[in-house]
């Protein structure tokens, strides 16, 4: 599967666009729509600048890695909304966290398990602190996951 426009828009909404490199709440240099690396593998660093067009291209390039992760690791039959929600989650947290998550285990056992909603909401911290923005994002991802 590929991320739909709904999924792209969800990522854009919560990542926001910043053309100047900044330290995210986890203290990692970030640019564009939450990107920490460029397509060539170089890390984002202080002082980096991208245009909106470059940020869009970077997002589309980066999202492929997370689509691949979700496509490879989800073994159950999921719909587009489920895929979009899981890809947004994985884009934000990384494939490593997704692979270790109870969320993935529950999705693979039964993609309609109501406890999946709770599993999304558990991932609302950065640097050990609950963030309102992450709480809102997880709630919206969960809502999208269970929408038809």
Automatic annotation (TrEMBL):
Gene3D superfamilies with a match to the protein in the record: 1.10.530.40
Root EC class: hydrolase
GO MF annotation list: lysozyme activity
UniProt cross-references to Pfam families, sorted A to Z: Phage_lysozyme
Record flagged with keyword Hydrolase: yes
Record keywords, A-Z: Antimicrobial, Bacteriolytic enzyme, Glycosidase, Host cytoplasm, Hydrolase
GO biological process, one term: cell wall macromolecule catabolic process
CDD domains documented for this protein: lyz_endolysin_autolysin
The protein's Enzyme Commission number: 3.2.1.17
Catalysed reactions listed for this entry: Hydrolysis of (1->4)-beta-linkages between N-acetylmuramic acid and N-acetyl-D-glucosamine residues in a peptidoglycan and between N-acetyl-D-glucosamine residues in chitodextrins
InterPro entries, per the entry: Bacteriophage_GH24, Endolysin_autolysin, Endolysin_T4_type, Glyco_hydro_24, Lysozyme-like_dom_sf, Lysozyme_dom_sf
SUPFAM superfamilies hit by this protein: Lysozyme-like
Family (UniProt): Belongs to the glycosyl hydrolase 24 family.
Protein name (record): Lysozyme
UniProt organism field: Cochleicola gelatinilyticus
């Amino acid at each position: 599967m590929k991320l739909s426009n709904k999924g792209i828009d969800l990522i854009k909404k919560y990542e926001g666009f910043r053309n100047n490199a900044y330290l995210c709440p986890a203290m990692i240099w970030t640019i564009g729509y939450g990107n920490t690396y460029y397509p060539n593998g170089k890390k984002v660093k202080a002082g980096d600048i991208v245009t909106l067009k470059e940020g869009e291209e970077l997002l589309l390039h980066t999202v492929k890695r997370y689509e691949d992760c979700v496509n490879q690791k989800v073994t159950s039959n999921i719909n587009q909304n489920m895929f979009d929600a899981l890809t947004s989650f994985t884009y934000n947290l990384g494939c490593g966290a997704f692979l270790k998550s109870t969320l993935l285990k529950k999705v693979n056992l039964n993609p309609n398990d109501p406890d999946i909603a709770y599993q999304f909401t558990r991932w609302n911290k950065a640097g050990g602190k609950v963030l309102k923005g992450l709480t809102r994002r997880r709630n919206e991802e969960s809502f999208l996951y269970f929408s038809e």
